[in-house]
Amino acid sequence: MKQNNSVNDFILLGLTQDPVRQKMVFVIFFIFYVGTVVGNLLIIVTIKSNQTLETPMYFFLFYLSLADSCFSTSTAPRLIVNALSATTIISYNECMTQVFALHLFGCMEIFVLILMAMDRYVAICKPLHYPTIMSRKVCIILIVLAWIGSFIHSIAQIILALRLPFCGPNLIDHYCCDLQPLLKLACMDTYLINLLLVSNSGAICSSSFVILMTSYIVILHSLRNHSAEGRNKALSTCTSHIIVVILFFGPCIFIYTCPPTTLPMDKMVAVFYTIGTPFLNPLIYTLRNSQVKNAMRKLWHIKITSGTKK
């Protein structure tokens, strides 16, 4: 990566400089990260190994779990390692790579959530046309477009980051590299770049949140014409999705629509949507979904049975 500056590396200040609190950060986020990876991998394996889950909703859930795992991995390992390290240096190239990965998988999560809302809308509001509209071929095309859109968004972010000149200091008051904390270190007027950041990341988060909430309001309104059993099942599914949308987009909108300030709350909000939400998603989708829980039980039973026979 071409450097437009005299800085070869950065120092991440992390969440705290207190040694005792750093140990707490290590323990807490190690548990969160392991839980995120294990939980999402369990969902991925369950969906891939169970034929009853070969529907568009679980097809998209598979990619949401994949995006969650990668999104958390783009930030959590560095935070965990730095909590116990004497030096918290991150190279320029690694920092730019983290910016790219953070936005690639974060944007992918946004697009998958939109696709899941679209799937529920078609299933509930247009049930007779559902098999045609949400065919396997259509789902694959939508996921490919989501990956392409995420890649384009990440390229735009990395171009903005690479154009920033740094001449010192190199202290990033954050636990990861992102455009917002990097803007504070740039040796230039960053008003225009911050405006581009808000119009890109901020607009994607805000508009996606409005689209998602509007779609779920329409879905919930249409449920009045369904039977009690169908209404309860749809409500359970939609409630899970709405919880995920609020937990993810609330902090995301706060971060990318505000000016680049140095507030301790900014880091905690960022932690919530980069590490907290990917950890909660598997719990929300499994604890509130009997079909996934039953599939997991069958998978676990098969593994135990095969292990006993050996």
TrEMBL record:
Pfam families, A to Z: 7tm_4
Membrane topology: Multi-pass membrane protein
Primary localisation category: membrane
Matching InterPro entries: GPCR_Rhodpsn, GPCR_Rhodpsn_7TM, Olfact_rcpt, Olfactory_Receptors
Presence of the UniProt keyword Transferase in the record: no
Described purpose of this protein according to its UniProt entry: Putative odorant or sperm cell receptor.
Protein's name according to its UniProt entry: Olfactory receptor
Native organism: Equus asinus (Donkey)
Taxonomic placement: Eukaryota, Metazoa, Chordata, Craniata, Vertebrata
Gene: LOC123278053
